[in-house]
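Suppose you are handed only these lines of text.
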Amino acid sequence: MELVQVCAISEVKAGIIKSVDVEGVKLMVTKLDGEYIVASRLCTHKTFDLGSSHYDDGYITCMLHTSVFDLSDNGEAMNPPATDPLDMYEVIVKDDFIYIKI
Ligand code: FES
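From them, the structure of the protein bound to FE2/S2 (inorganic) cluster can be written out as follows.
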């Protein structure tokens, strides 16, 4: 596992999904209840990119087939057709930057 920098914390706002690609991994970053969240940006149904999907208070809705994922609950899929949760990453904040282990 390697510690990789995702972005500066100043680039991350609550209520907004920030898309970041790190070492070929498509990620989304946001701030929820004061915590930074880093998750895979690929829907677990058909790997659709969730980067511009509707996001509200921890819930992101896939634009393709409307599965909803709960970023406050380990990326859990709330409704079909997706059944698997999004990959979530442990966040490390250091010197005003967000890092994850890949
Ligand atoms: S690709 Fe996201 S629900 Fe089908």
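What can we learn from it? The chain has one domain: 3-101. The mean pLDDT is 97.
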